[in-house]
Task: structure prediction
Amino acid sequence: GVKLLLHGLCSNTTVKSLDLKGNNLRTMGAEALGKLLRQNKSIRSLILEWNNLGMWEEGFSFFCHGLGANNFLQRLDLRNNQINHQGAGELAMALKQNASLQELDLRWNNIGLLGGRALLNCLHSNKTLKRLELAGNNVPSDILKAVEQAMDHNQDRQTILSETQNRAYILSKEVLSLKDEKTKQFLDLMDTIDKQREEIARSGRMSAARVSQLQEALDEQHSIMNSLKAKLQMTEAALALSEQKVHNLGELLNATKEEQTSMAERHFTELQQQKQEGADREGKLLRDLSAASEKNLLLRNQVDELEKKCKVQQDQLFQVKQDLTNTTAELKLRAVQAEERLEMEKRRFKQSLEDMESLRLKEVDHMTQHIEASERSMQDRIQRLEAIRIALEEELSQVKAAALTERGQAEEELIKVRSQARLEEQQRLEHLEEKLRLMTESRDEAQNCCLKQKQMVAEAQAKANQLSLHADGLRRRLEELQQDLNSKEEEKVTEVNKVKVELQEQIGHLQAERTAQEGLREKIAALERQLKALSSNHREALLDKEGEISMLLEKLRMKEADISRMREEEAQRASFLQNAIMAYVQGSPLGAHGSRK
Result:
């Protein structure tokens, strides 16, 4: 029945505890238990009290092999199973292979001295067993004490391992949180860069539209100048016709000189005055044309300067974008390098712990065989551990120096970015001031032109009406340009405020990163302290073990001396008894009768 039950439990995944106390299991049951321990992965507690498993050596050996292959069982109760020293040896071999059992109860069996020694030797390789009960097994007290010390050592080791695992888990969580924060910061920076690009594109479009408007205004002024030239040509033609008329009148006057000399002289003087007035008018018109051409040239030069300044601003913006992309890429690379360094330090720390554990296991194995050689090897290994600790300290110092250099570089980059932003703001403000000055000068010149044109229009009413209309249009355009300049100034102010806010946010993010780096440094210092404490505890434990080994050797010597002394005393007593018996036999009447015969 037990065989069928255990065969069904081999594939079960829900049963966690199994109690088979007092079922008189034999060889078949022990073999079925060994098979169960090989195949089942869910049972954590197994109670086999009062089953006499130790009486069946083959079945118990099969059970021990299954226990050695199992890596899930945590508690095993084998009380009152008549396990002798051979069964204890099989259990010791199984415990060397097992890496999950934490509690083993072997009370009230027949393990004895040899079995106790076998179990004590297996504890040097088993580091998971926390509790081993050996009461009622005729095991000497020194072996029981050694077993208790080994159990205490295993408990301390497991607590230290659990603490280190918890700390590593906490550190990994913190590293992941730092990664998330850095990714968020990078995404925020990319969003701000995209927004700035959109704003720059908008400003470029607005500037292009305004330049096109200015070009249209220049084209209109060119058309006005062409119309004025055409009017001047018309006036010149009119003057030529008037000259021809005057020449004809002169011929007529020459023909009628004799009749009206006085009238001819008067007409001649009037014609000369008219000629002078026409020449004055022509000179004024030529001067106006030269002034208008100079103004056109000045306006063209101003437009060219504005285009050049727009190109320079676009180049500066492109350089700022490139600097921002370079700084973000450098920050990413530095974050990745810091994370890789942290992972490398964790791996090295784990490897050093594993090396220390393997070295300690080897030392314990060799201490039981060759005590003198183990002392020398222990000294060499202590030196190696000190060298490893020194190397770790050097690596930590290098990491600290690298972190300090990175922080200094980041601060220098921040200072450079701030200085560049300030210079750009100053340049933009100066550029805007120059634009305003030029616009005011152009406005003053346009007003002067309007005044001159009004004076010219006073001479001719038709021309005056057209010029007044043109002056009104120019005033409206000047007002529109002033409004555009005011809107530009407001936009520039808003852009400057946005840049200041973004710089403040970046400074806050950098300060948060600085605080996180300081927290990591504090954690690294705490880890260094823990390493120092662990190394000191390890040394103290080694010294305590050496002292205990020397005490055990002295006790063994004392016990050997006591045993030799007791043997000598027993030999003396035996000789005394033999002599007394011989004397009694010789002195008794039976002895005398025998001698007489």
Observations:
- The beta strands are 17-19, 45-47, 75-77, 103-105, 131-133.
- The two ends are 76 Å apart (CA to CA).
- The chain has a mean pLDDT of 80.
